[in-house]
Specification:
70 residues; single chain
Length: 70
């Protein structure tokens, strides 16, 4: 990639800044929801198939935790 031919630094920084600000807002709002007394954890919605696929993949890769014998 070549500066000026493939991208303009000022435009790249503007898009990057906008994206980071939007992500920050989304993340903060999500955390507010999770911290709410109304929040109840549960299954993913049917529209969130990629998230549930990732969660299943991740859980399948975790090492089983050793249970402590009492």
């Amino acid at each position: 990639m070549r500066e000026g031919d493939d991208f303009q630094p000022d435009e790249l920084m503007r898009v990057w800044d906008t994206t980071l600000r939007e992500d920050k807002t989304i993340t903060e709002n999500k955390q507010k929801g999770v911290n709410s007394f109304i929040y109840r954890p549960g299954r993913y919605r049917t529209q969130e198939t990629r998230i549930s696929e990732f969660a299943a993949w991740h859980m399948g890769r975790r090492e089983p935790r050793l249970e402590c014998a009492a």
